[in-house]
Design goal:
The protein has a four-stranded mixed β-sheet with strand order 4-3-5-6, with helices on one face. The chain has a two-stranded antiparallel sheet with strand order 1-2. It has about 240 residues and is α+β, with helices and mostly antiparallel strands. The protein folds into two domains: about 150 residues, Up-down Bundle (Four Helix Bundle (Hemerythrin (Met), subunit A)); about 70 residues, Nonspecific Lipid-transfer Protein, Chain A (2-Layer Sandwich).
């Protein structure tokens, strides 16, 4: 499921698209609401920069073996985002560039024999270092959508849609106690996820529609379900 080099390269491509889009905004755009409730675009941009540094911490932990948490604390993470949200657009853009450079360098510095090293995410989930580029790719791609500046779920690369749908169904929501047993299908392929026990609800739609629903970026109106309404998907956290 993991492909470290491919995911690290995809992060760079996604970041380049994000930087180009942000560079084209006018000065007042960062203060405008994003598509995430309660967050301006500035909040999203600040989060993206600090998330890059948080993942650098985990890559450093994996490389050295010395425990380096993502954030000093949950409160520190939130305070940093609030502190930086109202910055001028040029400052956001510079921060995004420099934090992306640090992430790319840390990803390139991780030896192959450390890819299987396990680190702990901020939510307590244990993750293998080889999947950290995918984690960063998800942040960049989905939060680019969340900025509400013209990049939508329809613009996500097909390869990313496939990778993230596979991750959500086989890792994130597999066995999740708050999600009923699901069989997701695009009519040709199927992905099973949710609780292992109980009747399995079939949900049909395109991979892009399924991903939008699972990530909370779509209401599922383009999907069809067998014998029951669509369940509420737990937050990604």
């Amino acid at each position: 499921m993991s492909d470290y080099a491919r995911d690290a390269s995809a992060v760079q491509g996604a970041t380049d698209r994000l930087l180009t889009a942000v560079a084209g905004l006018d000065e007042g755009a960062a203060a405008q609401p994003s598509l995430l409730p309660g967050w301006t675009r500035g909040h999203v941009l600040a989060h993206l920069a600090r998330n890059a540094d948080a993942l650098v911490n985990l890559l450093t932990w994996a490389r050295t073996g010395e425990e380096t948490p993502m954030y000093a604390s949950e409160g520190a993470r939130d305070r940093d985002i609030e502190r930086d949200a109202a910055r001028p657009l040029a400052v956001h853009l510079d921060d995004l560039r420099t934090s992306a450079f640090r992430f790319n360098a840390a990803a390139a510095a991780l030896p192959r024999d450390r890819w299987t090293f396990e680190v702990t995410m901020r939510n307590g989930v244990t993750e293998r270092a080889e999947r950290l580029p995918l984690r960063r790719l998800v942040e960049v791609e989905l939060h680019h959508v969340d900025l509400g500046i013209g990049y939508t779920m329809a613009d996500l690369p097909d390869a990313f849609v496939e990778r993230h749908l596979a991750f959500l169904t086989t890792v994130k929501f597999a066995g999740h106690p708050d999600l009923p047993a699901l069989r997701l299908t695009d009519g040709e392929r199927a992905w099973e996820t949710g609780r292992a026990q109980g009747p399995r609800l079939t949900v049909s739609g395109s991979p892009r529609e399924l991903l939008g629903w699972l990530t909370g970026r779509a209401d599922g109106s383009g999907l069809s379900a067998s014998d029951a309404p669509l369940p509420t998907v737990p937050p990604l956290g």
